[in-house]
Design a protein that fits this description.
Length: 144
Amino acid sequence: MALYTETVMDHFMNPRNVGSIENAEGVGEVGNAKCGDIMKLYLKIGDGVITDVRFETFGCGSAIASTSMATEMIKGKTIEEALAVTNKDVVDALGGLPAHKLHCSVLAEESIRAAIKDYYDRNGIEYDHSRFREAEDGESCPMV
Ligand code: FES
């Protein structure tokens, strides 16, 4: 059996939503403590809906495929819907990742959460900090 699914290879070879957004409403930059790779995600948000999303990465193919898929999953969704997306959802949508690459998908989930937290912080929006605990206690190695 191939190590990577066709969906993973497609998102790796043709990643969706690569780039940055000028004047983004939320920017999340996280690092993977296991390998040192970095993910940066930009959000455009209007009326509580994610209208555009882009990402830049210094990361492996699995991180690129995971974040590409994640951007497709959250575009057009509400903030709450985006916050509900887990790395497991992303891995499932990719048709799976090898066990030793599962940690790469965490960058996708954490960068979404970090960008939404940044949006809340910039706009003085109250939120439940326990929902962003990983980003606040340094486990996800935020770079910003
Ligand atoms: Fe670093 Fe995949 S090896 S994110």
